[in-house]
Amino acid sequence: MKKMSLFAAVAAMLMSFASCEKVEPTALETSDLKGTTLAGYVYYPKLDDAMAPEGNTLFAGKANVTIEVTELGADDKATGNVMVVTAALKGGKFEASIPVAAGKKAKCKATCMFQQENYDAEVKPSDSDIKKVMLTYKGEANQTLTYGETVYVDLIGKRVGATNDPYHFNP
Q1: pLDDT tens digit string along 44-82?
Q2: pLDDT for 99-156, tens place per residue?
Q3: Which residues contact 110 (CB under 8 A, 6 or more apart)?
Q4: 120 near 147, Cβ under 8 Å?
Q5: In the β-sheet with 158-162, what is the strand arrangement from edge to edge?
Q6: Model pTM?
Q7: Which residue of 4, 49, 107, 161 could cross-link 169, Cys pair, CB 3.0 to 4.6 Å?
Q8: Residues 150, 154, 141, CA angle at the centre, nearest 5°?
Q9: In contact, 128 and 120? CB cutoff 8 Å
Q10: Alpha-carbon span 66 to 108, nearest angstrom
Q11: HSE-up (13 A, CA, CB side) for residue 48
């Protein structure tokens, strides 16, 4: 009797495996993935020889944009997971792939520090002289991204120091 019930159990198990349909896995294509991108341009305020603003000019030099990515939970509060992504400037433009999980959001703080020649007042003991000198600029922007989104931001550099005036550097 025990042999018969054991045989019936083994037969039932074999029949259940035989009735299973073999399904091939679906291939995952890179086109199926949605990328999350933060991109933009870096500018600085250009001055003329009278130190009057001429508007913002695209910074075409070499620099890196550092992006601090903070993952947000369902309640839009930081989860504590922070990652740093770096993007190189090419012709004043940057583009970075941001790691955001499906259905999630990330808060991004993009920062770029760079040096550019511009007009500035050079103070001398006798008087002040306006001439072109190397100035240090810092541009920042904050943006929240959702999975699969591409967002463009502009980083407008603000003067934080001059190479001829090292005591007045304010990062």
Answers
A1: 999 888 888 899 999 999 999 999 999 988 888 888 778
A2: 988 888 999 999 999 999 988 877 666 666 778 888 899 999 999 999 999 999 999 9
A3: 38, 40, 65, 66, 67, 94, 140, 141, 142, 143, 153, 155
A4: no
A5: 78-88, 64-72, 105-123, 128-146, 158-162
A6: 0.73
A7: 161
A8: 85
A9: no
A10: 10
A11: 5
- In the beta sheet, which residues pair with residue 122? 129
Q: What are phi and psi of 8, to 5 degrees?
A: -65, -40
pLDDT for position 80 = 76
Q: How does strand 37-47 pair with strand 150-156?
A: parallel
**Beta bridge pairs of residue 128:** 123
Tokens representing 55 are 């508007």
DSSP conformation class of 76 = S
Query: What is the amino acid identity at position 92?
Result: G
**How far is CA 34 from each of CA 3, 103, 121, 149, rounded to the nearest angstrom?**
57, 11, 49, 8
The answer to whether the beta carbons of residues 95 and 142 sit under 8 Å apart is no
CA–CA gap between residue 97 and residue 100 (Å, rounded):
9
Sorted by sequence, the CB contacts under 8 Å of residue 11 that are 6+ apart come out as none
Kindly state the percentage of the chain with pLDDT values over 90.
Answer: 43
Residue type, 164: N
The residue among 76, 70, 171 whose CA lies nearest residue 114 is 171
Strand runs labelled E in the chain? 37-47, 53-58, 64-72, 78-88, 93-97, 105-123, 128-146, 150-156, 158-162
